[in-house]
Amino acid sequence: MAKVKVKFACTECGTESPKWLGKCPGCGAWNTMIEETETVVKAPVGRGELLRTKEKARPIIHIESGREPRVPTGLSELNRVLGGGLVPGSLLLVGGDPGIGKSTLLLQTSHALSAQGLKVLYVSGEESVKQTKLRADRLGALNDRLYVLCETNLETIEESIMEIEPDFLVIDSIQTVYRPEIASAPGSVAQVRECTAHCMRIAKVKGVATVLVGHVTKEGAIAGPRLLEHMVDCVLYFEGERHHSYRILRAVKNRFGSTNEIGIFDMTEDGLREVTNPSELFLSERPLGVSGSTVVASMEGTRPVLVELQALVAPTHFPSPRRMSSGLDHHRMSLVIAVLEKRMGMFLQNQDAYLNVAGGVKLDEPATDLAAAVSLASSFKDAPTRPYDVVFGEVGLTGEVRAVSRAEQRVKEAHKLGFKRVILPEASMKGWQPPAGIELRGVKSVAEALKAALE
Ligand code: TYD
Ligand code: MG
Known about the structure:
It is a single chain. Helix 8 crosses helix 9 (369-381) and helix 9 packs across helix 11. The protein has 3 domains: 3-40; 71-276, Rossmann fold; 281-453, Ribosomal Protein S5, domain 2 (2-Layer Sandwich). The model is unreliable at 42-51 (pLDDT under 50). The strands form 4 sheets. The chain has a 9-stranded mixed β-sheet with strand order 6-5-7-8-4-9-10-11-12, with helices on both faces. By secondary structure, it is α/β, with parallel strands linked by helices. The N and C termini lie far apart (81 Å). It contains 11 helices and 21 strands. The structure holds thymidine-5'-diphosphate and magnesium ion. The site of thymidine-5'-diphosphate (TYD) has 15 residues, from helix 3 and helix 4.
């Protein structure tokens, strides 16, 4: 019989230790080390199989190239994030907070694929077959090529895979499945790792595109998806705020495509709806002609998105003023505030400042600096911005406005949504023509931009 040994492992990064530690030596996280009782299986499962491949090493010039075959999923926002579609034999991880809509997304994807004639196996370890059926009824995801299995034992799941021979497999979630020969509980670092490695082999050997669902956990009692990021081909995160209905699908790793595209969905009564024009959605609740509100054109991957940036500057009641930003990098906000203080002479030291990207989107582009500066100055001076202005540009430490990429696309998006004027870096205006009916106001400094926006 196998030997049982006890050790501790971090649920965030998987670092192991023979004794318990409060702080993980691998990733520095606190309280993430949990006890693992691991059965040491004599013959390491799978390793041998992988070594027994018939392939021989070949000179690289003899290997035929050609693009990875793609299977479009029927959900264009998902295709965009994947870089065209699913790659047969690839392993994908979809992570996200519990309740964000991962099961919904994958059931809809499963249905869309089965509607194209592919065979799909949806394995749920969390919900009963009945619950899954009820959800499918609501989503209208009914098809005789969509198989559902409620099981957590990976061996039994494998038997089903052999029998059904699906083209697409979903395991919802990786934290509920287990391999019986490993003694630790489902969701432990050892189980999650071994099960993922096993799914990888199934995907490669059977050529089936496989999706693993992974819950992001805060308590650290079960292993999180970050542990698996290096093992899989693609990692997608499904994000959103509980109080907003839309969700963003983001790739953080993609062996077959870029990682800067996002997919946007709206959670409705009957499932996720794709949002093909995100700017309209993000601007739908915008108040007009008020102070502290600016519209910024930010690039999300290859697509420009217009979002409202709100600021509130108000006298502080604290010894040191508060600086809060949501949806925007805190460091960039500090930089913009410092520039407004030093270069524009605004006295903000006795003022709290809040910045908020309306709707809960996250922007991480320097091109949002100028809009942040305009919003903050507008709120500070209580001077309303013009409702039909769009602002973008990077702010430098001397108060200069620096060029940003893809100005033309940003301006076109602003034009498409009926905006009348764009305030942008002068240096970004060379080499292209704006569409008729939109005024461009090139600026070289924050001072010029504020003059134009708040006059
Ligand atoms: P779910 O897909 O179960 O989340 P996860 O698998 O990430 O835990 O989605 C759960 C939430 O989505 C739940 O609060 C209800 C909501 N929802 C809708 O609003 N509309 C729908 O059609 C469905 C199926 C779910
Ligand atoms: Mg679920």
